[in-house]
């Protein structure tokens, strides 16, 4: 728990410091991904496992939406569902992520089946969905604040992957362009909510812990990818096995 009540500016600074220290753009696997140091099979493994995170975001957001007490808050949060699920078939972030996996040569049916997931991916994503469903509204909203830092990683990813992998195209990376505007919009709302509603030392400690937890979720997913697909011989039974190492 914080030893005193922080001002809203101090709380925001503490939240941003968590991102500067813990956001997963610092992970060695991501550094390698952006620098063009991975094989096609390793990039496939990343996209396949990240799909489960992307596909679970609407379930996470729907569980929070159901608990929000005002129409204003529900309208704001409902946009996140539309961003990821789309407003009709073939639209939205999940559909765009499937364009990424298809562009990498993965069958959509296999990706959507989740058969090739790493166990840690499933456990980490499920833990995040459960966190948002079970914790306070304030903590659930605070856990989304990794979006404060996502425009930087998206820009690095698009430039790095387009420049370093012959099998990546702008169409393959279609998921990311809308996120450059959606993520700042969403994080601005969440940050304003946290600044206004985290008024006690206990509440402020809880929102800081929520953001650390979310950073840990994303970091652990990359730990699992690094262990399974960078170190030889560590792919667990049933998980995706790359056919191409090109």
From TrEMBL:
Protein's name according to its UniProt entry: Pyrroloquinoline-quinone synthase
NCBIfam families named among the record's database cross-references: PQQ_syn_pqqC
Single GO MF annotation: pyrroloquinoline-quinone synthase activity
Lineage, top ranks: Bacteria, Pseudomonadati, Pseudomonadota, Alphaproteobacteria, Acetobacterales
Pfam hit, one: TENA_THI-4
InterPro entries, per the entry: Haem_Oase-like_multi-hlx, PqqC, PqqC-like, Thiaminase-2/PQQC
Keywords: Oxidoreductase, PQQ biosynthesis
Domain Thiaminase-2/PQQC, chain residue ranges per copy: 13-223
Keyword Oxidoreductase assigned: yes
GO biological process, alphabetically ordered: pyrroloquinoline quinone biosynthetic process
Gene from which the chain derives: pqqC
Substrates-to-products reaction catalysed: 6-(2-amino-2-carboxyethyl)-7,8-dioxo-1,2,3,4,7,8-hexahydroquinoline-2,4-dicarboxylate + 3 O2 = pyrroloquinoline quinone + 2 H2O2 + 2 H2O + H(+)
Pathway: Cofactor biosynthesis; pyrroloquinoline quinone biosynthesis
EC main group: oxidoreductase
Role description: Ring cyclization and eight-electron oxidation of 3a-(2-amino-2-carboxyethyl)-4,5-dioxo-4,5,6,7,8,9-hexahydroquinoline-7,9-dicarboxylic-acid to PQQ.
Family membership: Belongs to the PqqC family.
EC number: 1.3.3.11
Annotated PANTHER family: 4-AMINOBENZOATE SYNTHASE (PTHR40279:SF3), PQQC-LIKE PROTEIN (PTHR40279)
